[in-house]
Write a structure and sequence with these properties.
single chain, 179 residues
């Protein structure tokens, strides 16, 4: 697998473009925790949101910290977005480095995902939900039992935050149109 990463220039450029542009875009919020209406009450928040249908959010945010640490959670979120950009290039069957760079740039600077960085205490979990949503489509498309693994990935994505279901739906529609 590592050899495949070394050989695939699209993956490398996509990953590092997402990291660089993500840091350039989100560094101000990562270096200065400017709390919003939820942030003031969430300096420490265990993310126990089972009643809202977010049964996996506590686990997803537990990889970093339940404390509001913008630099740590921000770096983890950008790394997750970089991996998401790479998986997205595979789902969209991008064959050029410039396409991968554009996918990375659009993903890390898209206003909806950028506004998620205002919610420092959950941003790593929400970015993991985006990754799992894109990964679900990739698994369904590539694997023999992909529908099973894709369904599991989508279930975990929905267990974090249900708003990212449209990403999977639109990617599935895109794949159907390509057939």
């Amino acid at each position: 697998m590592i050899e495949k990463i070394r050989e695939n220039k699209i993956w490398q450029y996509t990953f590092f473009t997402a990291i660089i542009l993500g840091l350039c875009t989100h560094l101000p919020i990562m270096l200065s925790d400017i709390p919003n209406h939820d942030g003031l009450a969430s300096i420490y928040f265990d993310q126990n949101m089972i009643m809202s249908g977010r049964w996996f959010l506590s686990v997803a945010c537990g990889f970093s910290s339940y404390y509001s640490l913008p630099w740590l959670i921000g770096l983890l979120a950008i790394l997750i977005l970089a991996v998401t950009a790479v998986v997205l290039t595979e789902v969209l069957e991008i064959n050029k480095v410039s396409g991968g760079v554009m996918i990375a740039g659009i993903l890390v600077t898209f206003p909806v995902l950028t506004s998620t960085f205002a919610y420092v205490f959950t941003m790593d979990g929400y970015m993991l939900a985006v990754l799992l949503s894109v990964l679900a489509v990739y698994l369904v498309d590539k694997g023999k039992a992909g529908f099973l693994w894709g369904g599991i990935a989508l279930a975990f994505s929905m267990g974090i935050y249900q708003a990212y279901l449209p990403i999977a739906i639109l990617l599935c529609l895109y794949k159907v149109v390509l057939i």
